[in-house]
Amino acid sequence: MPIEVKVPQLPESVADATLIAWHKAPGDAVSRDESLVELETDKVVLEVPAPVSGVLKEIRVPNGTTVRAGELLAILEAGEAKVAAAPAGAAATAPAAVAPTTAPVAPGRAAGRAGPAVRRLAAESGVDPVAIAGSGRDGRVLKADVAAAVAAGETAGAMPATGLPPAGRAERRVPMSRLRARIAERMVEAQQQAAMLTTFNEADLGEVIALRHRHRAAFEQRHGVKLGFTAFFVKAAIEALRRFPVVNASVEGGDIVHHDYYDIGIAVSTERGLIVPVVRDADTLSFGQIETAIADYGRKARDGSIGMEDLTGGTFTITNGGIFGSLLSTPILNPPQSAILGMHKIQERPMVVNGQLVARPMMYLALTYDHRIIDGREAVQFLVAVKDALEDPARLLLQV
What we know:
- The protein is built from nine helices and 19 strands.
- It is of the alpha+beta class.
- The chain has two domains: about 1-80 and about 105-150, CATH 2.40.50.100; about 180-400, Chloramphenicol Acetyltransferase, CATH 3.30.559.10.
- Strands 9, 12, 15, 16, 17, 18 and 19 form a seven-stranded mixed sheet that branches. It has a four-stranded antiparallel sheet with strand order 1-8-6-3, with no helix packed on it.
- Helix 6 crosses helix 7 (about 285-305) and helix 6 (about 230-245) packs across helix 8.
- The longest helix is centred in the middle third of the chain and has 18 residues, at about 205-225.
């Protein structure tokens, strides 16, 4: 019985998606819930599973097509696929008797199956992912497999897209992914619609570092996750937001929308681009729960399973460029939020403490805010409140 495979209901506010890769070709056997095709939206990649077991009879939409919810993608013939069993020893005795196949090979199929980040890396490296034997689960091609293929000289045609020889001054033109295009759109939108201003301060992280050293083993044993710095940043930001609620607000038309809850976005850099998963009701969570939530989002970002619901609705964002070595930056607002807190590299610097010159682990803090609704006084005092909480973490417990 023919079964229609359609584009699933897309997340709210997402109008369409781009079909980026079929995992199967017409005539292939498929199992129920096996991934058939990948669709890329503005923020996430969705996998469309097979609704039943059977054979992929027809593909209606080619790669690169923009599709909408409910649009027909393919036709499946339901039922168990029949595969002829080869006689024992046939492969060893008569390999030449096997006729060559003429079925088209779809990108990402069988041993060449690869995620969007791996396919992009392969394209940039001039490698055909279909020709690579994947070492991942079910033959999935990994980035390490692409790197090994490049080292072995397994390039696709040995000619760059411009036609120049590999040793020449080649150029590559790669279209933006939907995520990258959306990031670009939102960054320009933030620059054009908000009156952004950044204020700076610095914090001595000595007490936080000492606290982590004293308790990280017990913390990890109890919560099953490492005690990082991010939970301290989140807790410090929430205490400051309580004192200066306009920093947790947003602008909608001519209104200021005040949020009496704290959904904190944590900027995460992935192979596909920057995403901001949201820790919901972060003020009600313990340090362990915050670190667990962040670790879960990191895992989802790496394996591509993060959902649209994980990325929407934040009231305030924290970004930490320090993990990449950034000493100072001016972060850009994440619309419609009115502020974003930038954390940076912890670096020992000479500081005067009680009249003595000593080396202290210092971090620059940056708050970019929308000057339409946040005054400089509030922004500066907010940042001072964050600084005070990090320099004396007991404040986070006592909420003072």
